[in-house]
Amino acid sequence: MIEALRTQEAGETAITPIAATPSAATPGPAPDGPSLDLSALDLAAVEALVRRAAADEIMPRFRQLAAEDIVEKNGPHDLVTVADRLAEEHLTVSLTALLPGSRVVGEEAVHADPGVLDALHGDAPVWIVDPVDGTRQFVHGDPGFCTLVALAHRGEVLASWTYAPALGLMAVARRGAGARLNGVPLQAGSPSAGAVLDVATSHYDFTDDEQKRVLATLETGGIAPRPCGSAGLEYLHIARGEIDATAFSWENAWDHAAGLLLVHEAGGASGTVAGQPFRIEGGNALPFTAARDAETARRILGLLAAAN
To answer: Can you give the pTM of this predicted structure?
Structure first.
């Protein structure tokens, strides 16, 4: 079957015919009607707002949390802190003020009211926010956490910000305009020929037996799977060429929207086991992958699809 594979080359989106089942593709469907015009939006102002939320609400509490500042949501591994809640509230106010008429889909707001997710299906621009991605790391004093913000419109992710304040890293991506880390262009590149692929997978603490069975297909020659940490930082590792791919079995938009655009704009590829682009609205065939290049994505998807 001939599929269309989108990759990023020299800052332009290239459509390349390939023969592969399943395929790797860019995240998100083509929107119905024109996308939001970003020309009037100050993207640097968004970065400043993300930095301010982290400076005000997250970093003062890093390694300073009291026991009562930490709450279990759905079990001992699913934690939320006062920093998560206050940072999301901060960003909700500041981002909607910057772009009047926009909505916010934040992890903690959705936990309180799943109906908040309906905004992903509407016509208004949507800020997708994970205030502290890697809360477990944050709780344990590990600097491997980040704040994720993406701007989407009608299912298409247009821009994203991945900020790791304890590591001093700010990655910004804009659809069709590339990705930068601390102002320096990012290129994911490709794995060296014959190299063992370093693949971050869904953490076993958050997977059921069936998901573990499917992900176990990556335990084969030439692939070195390992449990992921912060999903946002794993995407950044791919965009920097530090790891080769991910294989994730959950689809929360706040975990993936920013990172998928970042990988794509750094030259990478992504796709689901059904051979379709990942949809931020949900309903995806899982697992899915993001990878440094199309060939790596095809290889990971082929192994995962074989388990079904």
So the answer is: 0.89
